[in-house]
Amino acid sequence: MTNSGLILRNATSALHGKKVVNLRVAFVVAEFDRDVSDQLIWLFRENGIKCWTERDILPGSNHFGAIRRAYKEADFILVFLSKASVARSGEYQKYINLAIDASDEMPEGGIKLIPICLEQCEVPFSLQKFYSVAATQPDALLRLVLAWAKEWQRRHGADDWPDVVYQSVWE
Fold it and tell me: Where is the TIR domain (predicted)?
């Protein structure tokens, strides 16, 4: 069972109220892990981060085409893992594979996909090449924010993050 209160407190502490405009984060979440992801999405949006889940797909859109595009355009993709989600088959696994495909387009050493373990669970083999974060650890979300900052600086040559302004279809 996940401790969503602890995870949210850790995320709040990690962000320190910093407004992070222009950062786009896509979420890969199984429906039974939505309580935690919805709280993080709210917190991230309060701090200027643009968040996307498959619930943002408009009616009539090509479902997997929209997901593929969002993952490709995202600065980062967070894959939420729990005991229940990793045991699940179906669309959630397809979303993970689409996220891996988007991440594979990054240059060597770049960070795009970050698995987040909401509780102690087995990381699927397909995600084991990505270093995961245990969300319940006190410094886990600080490490997530630091990974974002480091990768942002690498991509944009910025001293701080995010200093770069660009057009976004995520408005």
Answer: 30-136
In one-letter notation, the amino acid at residue 142 is: L
Range of the domain at 132: 4-152
* Nearest residue to 53 via CA among 22, 9, 98: 98
C-alpha distances out from residue 125 to 60, 65, 87, 141, Å? 33, 25, 12, 23
Q: pLDDT of the chain along its 171 residues, tens only? A: 445 555 555 555 555 556 666 789 999 999 989 988 898 888 888 888 899 999 999 999 999 999 999 999 999 999 999 999 999 889 999 999 999 999 999 888 889 999 999 999 999 999 999 999 988 887 777 778 778 878 878 877 766 655 444 444 454
Please count the structural domains in the chain: 1
Give the DSSP per-residue string, 94-118.
HHHHHHHHHHTTSPTT---EEEEES
Strands 76-81 and 24-28: parallel
CATH (domain of 21): 3.40.50.10140
The residues pairing with 113 across neighbouring beta strands, listed in sequence order, are 77
Specify if 168 maps to a domain.
no
Who contacts 169 (Cβ-Cβ below 8 Å, separation ≥6)? 73
- Residue 157 in any domain: the answer is no
For 51, the 3-state DSSP assignment is: strand
